[in-house]
Each structure stands twice: as structure tokens, then as C-alpha cells.
Specification:
Structural class: alpha+beta
Order of helices and strands: HHHEHEEHEHHHHHHHHHEHEEEHEHHHHH
Low-confidence stretches: 341-357
Strand content: 5-15%
Mean pLDDT: 83
């Protein structure tokens, strides 16, 4: 080849690497800046069409500023009665907060409990403080912890949101470092190569930097919305997906390099062989995530485009930066191991489709080939047994005490409040009704079982103290519930309360507030599951049918990954109940688990079946299954372990929601990789035979 052609051939990979290095330097900081545009205000993630959302919008007219209540509770240190002096000191401490930074409205006096053992006061904290909220809450705590002989605790929505912000603090650095270290260790152990794991990690980091930069710009312009959960999942999703795609491409390059010897020819063949599988896998995950746009929950809708952006960036990095580096470094990428050339002894028999029945995956493939029916029957039975436990998973929301996996001040304060005051104190149900029906609505609310008191809010901002405040012909009525605001009893009370006030003629009454919001979120999540699950399955089926040019095997794959999901939920039920002590899960956990596990689970089946089809075109279906499983077994298993480990890194964030998602996805991916993709699918395909390719032409070969 002329020297000019050789030089020109090297220009493209060099330029690509330089461009990515420049982009990495420019965009890298955005991975740490995403928290600046993230919002953990739960009110901003309400169902769009729910009654509580309408109340939240109408409620804005009854205050100059939107606020979150911080509820202070004092108890005597000796466990006795609160003295008049302590009550006076508590009221003075509350009054000292009036007008301070972040405090809005009038501060309530300290009110005693019926048992005389506690005091309660409410401080309204201005909404939209973002990262400043924890410091404001800390200021309230310091100011109120000055009552001699009494212990002060701070609860309510403001304190809960501050604890939530603390839980997500440092998420950019901590989660990313943990995930990358885990992935690097696994790659070093599995591939026993020094350079390749580093190249793959750098490729994943570049993908994450690009994704975070795009999301940052969109979130800054309010095109997408980000909270701490979406932020954490984006990091894990990109690192896991980019690593998986990189493993598939680098493994195929190693195989082609052993066969062809020349790096450029090997990379051309690698891209031809892996492009369809990787793009189809990425499309499955991205479109599955975009199906979340059908959700009525704003945080679900937020995850859809953000996650899809992350997947697209992973594919871009995999097909640009990674091939350029592999071409430039060649065989050195696999040092100290070396791909065998066609002239080496054994002719590279351990690589890809050249692998024989020797080696672990050769033996697994041979066993599947000999006894397919026994293998698929046994694995199918085991999965069905696990799946039988899935209906027992309680996913109708969790109380505040179980949101965090460690003790936090707001949870302890809520427990103290519930012990001495009505559970809904400081966090009432909010009723918005026509002013002309205020008295009738108040009477109906007060007479509802589970409601302690109900009174219109006056111009002073306090219920029952003066004439009702009328805004645009509406009044606001606060109803204190007997049960804790986050309890199932309170949710049932809200349903009864809605029925009662809706029946008041011409009142147009609506019920909102924290408890109503949680109830609406639960109802909406159940509706979302019934809508989104079949849409995701249909998307996957269409992509598989187009990729494999068949109908039987796509239906088989969709059925097996769905069964794997149900089996995983069954195992999660047993683990959550008996080992981790979770009484239930957040309403969105099953949907998130389904989208991630089914979409990502199909990835590995795509990697396997595209290779099986490629081999079947040359050698027939039976040999294709055996050769495809042998060639892909190691790399797909490694990819599954890496993906499971990256999602397991979510446990570093002390929130039950993310711990539950981490377990479901990590365990489900491992079971899909080691059981469904390695045994069940190839055994079923082997037993069915060429008919799996119906109605494609390959069924006749």
C-alpha cells in the first residue's frame, strides 16, 4: 500500500481520539454540575391531571410565597410534663425566626399536646430554596433547641426534603467513583489486561460527560426535569450500557484480529458484525425509556428522555472513540494476553465462533445441544416457582419512616409528633372550595371519619382564627387528619374526605395536600404500569422481529424476559420481606424495574441471537446455536456482571427506592445472563429447531 494511503488511513482514528479528548476536557465538568439544575421538590413531580395537583395550583393564590411547613416538636427531657416556662420559651424561640432568611409567613406559637408532654410549632419555609434548604432547616433547629429541660426535633415536609437533599449530596462524585472502581476491578479480573479496561472506562466516562452536558443544557431551559433519582440512574445507566457495548465491540475486535491479523481489516469486520446488535440493543433500551413519556407522573416522564439521551451518547462513544483507540493500539490493547493469529498453533481456536467444545462455554453449548428439553424444562420450572411470589410484592407506597435506609432526624421527629399529637398535625389535608359553600364544606370535612379538625384559613394564615380568606371566589380549608400524613389510614381518610366534600352542592371542592398527593401518585403509578408495560413489550417485539427477520424467536425472547422479570420480583419479595425488612416498595419501583430489566435483558438476547443467526446462515440452525453460544458466552456474561455491579452501586445512596431498584436490576440481570440467555433461550431454540426463524427464509435451511 502506498505511503500516502497508509497515512490517510491513520488520520481518521487520530482525529477522532483528539476530538474526544477535547470534548472530554470541555464537557467533563458537567458530570459534576448536574446537581445545579436538579430539583428534589416532590411537589414538582405530581401527577399532571390529579386532583391534588389542581389543589396545589389553586393553593398558590392563598399565600404571597409558596412554602413548606417545618414542624418543631419539644418533649421534656425527663419524660414528664411540659412546664409553662418551657412553653413560653418555645414560643419566644419560634418568634425569633420571623423574618429570617428563608422563612415566610407568620410563625405559629408553641401549642401543647393533650397529654401535656409535648409542644408543637409550625414554621413556614420558602419553597424553591434548592441547595440552601438544609442550611435554613439547620438554622431553625438551632434557634428552637434553646428551651431548657426540653428536647427539640424538627419534622414536616421541609425537614424531610432537607434530609432528602442531604442523601443526594455528593451523588455526582460518590456514585460515579464507586461505579467506575467496581467496573474497573471486574474488567481487570475477567480480561487480565492492563490497557483494555482503562480504554473501556474512559469511553464510558466520555459518554457520561456528553450525556450530562446535553441534559444540563436541556434542564437549564426547562425542556427536561431532573431530580436526584434521575441523576443517579443516568450515571449508572450510561456507565453500564457504555461498558456493555464496549465489551461486545472489543471482544469481536479481538476475535477478528486473531482471524485476520491486520487491525484495520479486523475493525471493519468488527463494525459490520456488531453494528446491528449494538444499535438494536440501544434502540430497545432508548425506546423503552421513552415509553415513560406516556406516564402521568412527571418524574417518570423526566427519566424517559434523560435515559434515552444517555443511551444515545453511549452508542456514539462506542462507535467513534473506542474503535479509533483500538485501531491505534492494536494488539497492545489486550496485553499481556495476545489474540492468536491464523498462523498460531490451534489457529485461534479459543476465539469467537472458532471455539470448539473446549472451555466453559463450549461445554455449556454442548450440554444444551445434547439435552435441550431437560434444560429448558428445569429452568422454566425454577423461574415459574420464583414468579409465583411476585403478586405478593406490596408496591402501594411506603411511609416516611421507610424512605431512608438509615435513621434521619425528620423521621424521628415524625415518630415523636405521632406519639403526642394527631398524626396529621402540621401537615393537613388542603381543601379548596367556593367561598359560598365554605361553611357546608367545613362541616362535611369535620364530620368525616378520621378527620380531627377542619377550619377555613383566615387572613392571618392560620385556620379558624378570623374571617376566611377569599381568593378569586375560593376559600382554603385545612383538615387535620388523625392518622400520620404518610400512613395508609390517612390515605383512606382522604378518600372518604373527597367523597364527603364532593357531595356538597355547588361547592366544586377539591382535596389536596401531602397525603392526597401520595394517594394520587400511587393510583397514577398503577395506571402507568397497565399502560406502559404492554407498550414496552410491543416495542421490543417489533425491534426483534425487524432485526432477526422472524416472528417465532422474537415472541419467545419477549416471553422469557418477561418471565425473568416476574421471577425477579418474586425473589425481591422474599428478600425485601425476610432479609432487608422492607414492608413494601414505592409505587414506581415495579415500573422502573420492568423498563430497565426487560429492555436491558433483551440486550443480551440480541447479542446472542444475532450471532446465532449469523452462524446459522453458514452452518445451519443447530450448529449456529452451539457456535453462537460458545462465541458470545464469555463476553455477554462479563457484560451482565458489569451491568449488575454498576446498578448495585446505587446502594451507596441511603434511599430505599434506589436500594430496591439496585437489587431488582442487579439480580434480574444476573439471572437473565446466567440462566435465561445461557440455558433457557438456547435450549428452547435448539428443541424447536429451524422453525424459530418462521416466517423468514432461514427456517428452510
Amino acid at each position: 500500500m502506498p505511503s500516502a494511503q497508509r497515512t490517510a488511513r491513520w488520520i481518521t482514528p487520530v482525529v477522532l481520539v483528539v476530538v474526544w479528548l477535547l470534548l472530554g476536557g470541555l464537557l467533563g465538568p458537567y458530570a459534576g454540575k448536574l446537581g445545579e439544575v436538579a430539583s428534589n421538590d416532590q411537589a414538582s413531580f405530581l401527577p399532571q391531571s390529579a386532583e391534588s395537583t389542581k389543589v396545589s395550583d389553586l393553593q398558590k393564590g392563598f399565600a404571597q410565597e409558596q412554602s413548606l411547613p417545618a414542624v418543631v416538636v419539644w418533649t421534656a427531657e425527663d419524660g414528664g410534663k411540659i412546664t409553662p416556662q418551657q412553653r413560653t420559651a418555645a414560643t419566644r424561640a419560634l418568634a425569633s425566626l420571623s423574618g429570617d432568611e428563608g422563612i415566610t409567613g407568620k410563625v405559629s406559637p408553641a401549642l401543647p399536646s393533650k397529654d401535656g408532654q409535648a409542644l408543637q410549632g409550625v414554621v413556614q419555609v420558602r419553597s424553591g430554596l434548592g441547595g440552601e434548604l438544609p442550611s435554613v432547616v439547620e438554622h431553625i433547629s438551632s434557634a428552637t433547641d434553646r428551651v431548657e429541660g426540653a428536647r427539640a426535633e424538627l419534622g414536616g415536609p421541609a425537614a424531610s426534603q432537607a434530609d432528602l437533599s442531604e442523601a443526594f449530596s455528593g451523588i455526582d462524585s460518590l456514585l460515579l467513583v464507586v461505579a467506575l472502581v467496581v467496573v474497573l476491578l471486574i474488567l481487570l479480573l475477567v480480561y487480565r489486561s492492563v490497557l483494555l479496561p482503562i480504554v473501556i472506562i474512559v469511553s464510558a466516562v466520555f459518554a457520561l460527560s456528553l450525556a450530562c452536558a446535553v441534559v444540563y443544557v436541556l434542564a437549564q431551559d426547562d425542556i427536561v426535569r431532573v431530580d436526584g433519582q434521575v441523576q443517579g440512574i443516568l450515571s449508572i445507566l450510561v456507565i453500564g450500557a457504555a461498558t456493555d457495548y464496549a465489551l461486545l465491540l472489543s471482544s469481536r475486535f479481538r476475535e477478528e484480529l486473531a482471524v485476520r491479523g491486520e487491525r484495520f481489516a479486523a475493525m471493519r469486520s468488527t463494525l459490520r458484525g456488531s453494528f446491528g446488535a449494538i444499535t438494536a440493543s440501544a434502540a430497545t433500551v432508548a425506546l423503552g425509556l421513552l415509553a415513560l413519556l406516556l406516564s402521568d407522573l412527571t418524574n417518570n416522564r423526566a427519566l424517559g428522555p434523560v435515559g434515552a439521551i444517555g443511551i444515545v451518547c453511549s452508542v456514539i462513544s462506542t462507535f467513534t472513540f473506542l474503535p479509533a483507540v483500538l485501531v491505534l493500539v492494536g494488539r497492545a490493547a489486550f496485553w499481556p494476553a495476545k489474540p492468536r493469529t491464523p498462523t498460531d498453533p490451534d489457529g485461534g481456536a479459543e476465539d469467537g465462533a472458532k471455539a470448539s467444545s473446549t472451555g466453559l462455554w463450549g461445554r455449556v453449548a454442548a450440554r444444551v445441544d445434547r439435552s435441550p428439553r431437560r434444560i429448558w424444562a428445569g429452568t422454566l420450572l425454577a423461574l415459574l416457582v420464583f414468579a409465583a411470589f411476585s403478586p405478593q410484592l406490596k408496591s402501594d407506597g411506603v411511609p416516611l419512616s421507610e424512605i431512608f435506609v438509615k435513621d434521619v432526624p425528620s423521621v424521628s421527629a415524625q415518630a415523636t409528633l405521632s406519639e403526642h399529637f394527631p398524626g396529621g398535625s402540621g401537615n393537613p389535608a388542603v381543601i379548596i372550595a367556593d367561598a359560598g359553600s365554605a361553611r357546608a364544606v367545613t362541616k362535611a370535612a369535620a364530620g368525616t371519619d378520621g378527620v380531627v379538625t377542619a377550619a377555613p384559613v383566615s387572613e392571618s394564615g392560620r385556620p379558624g382564627q378570623g374571617e376566611p380568606l377569599v381568593v378569586n371566589g375560593k376559600v382554603r380549608i385545612d383538615a387535620t387528619l388523625e392518622g400520620s400524613a404518610d400512613s395508609d389510614d390517612a390515605k383512606r381518610t382522604v378518600q372518604r374526605l373527597r367523597s364527603a366534600v364532593h357531595d356538597v352542592p355547588r361547592a366544586d371542592a377539591l382535596v389536596g395536600g401531602y397525603t392526597a398527593q401520595q394517594s394520587d401518585i400511587q393510583t397514577t403509578a398503577e395506571h402507568d404500569r397497565s399502560l406502559i408495560v404492554p407498550v414496552v413489550l410491543l416495542i421490543i417485539l417489533v425491534i426483534l422481529a425487524a432485526l432477526l427477520r422472524a416472528l417465532v424467536i422474537p415472541v419467545l425472547l419477549v416471553a422469557t424476559v418477561a418471565l425473568n422479570f416476574l421471577a425477579t420480583l418474586g425473589v425481591a419479595t422474599l428478600v425485601f420481606d425476610n432479609l432487608l425488612g422492607f414492608e413494601g416498595t414505592d409505587a414506581s419501583v415495579p415500573l422502573y424495574g420492568f423498563v430497565f430489566l426487560v429492555a436491558l435483558g433483551v440486550d443480551y438476547n440480541i447479542f446472542l441471537l444475532t450471532r446465532v443467526r449469523e452462524e446459522a446462515l453458514r452452518h445451519g440452525t443447530r450448529a449456529g446455536i452451539r457456535r453462537g453460544l460458545t462465541a458470545t458466552g464469555g463476553v455477554i456474561t462479563s457484560a451482565g456482571v458489569v451491568l449488575a455491579a454498576t446498578f448495585a452501586a446505587l446502594v451507596v445512596i441511603p434511599l430505599a427506592f434506589l436500594v430496591q431498584i439496585a437489587f431488582i436490576v442487579a439480580f434480574g440481570v444476573l439471572m437473565d445472563t446466567l440462566v435465561v440467555r445461557s440455558l433457557l433461550v438456547p435450549a428452547l431454540a435448539r428443541d424447536i429447531g429451524p422453525a424459530i426463524w418462521w416466517p423468514g427464509a432461514l427456517r428452510r435451511r
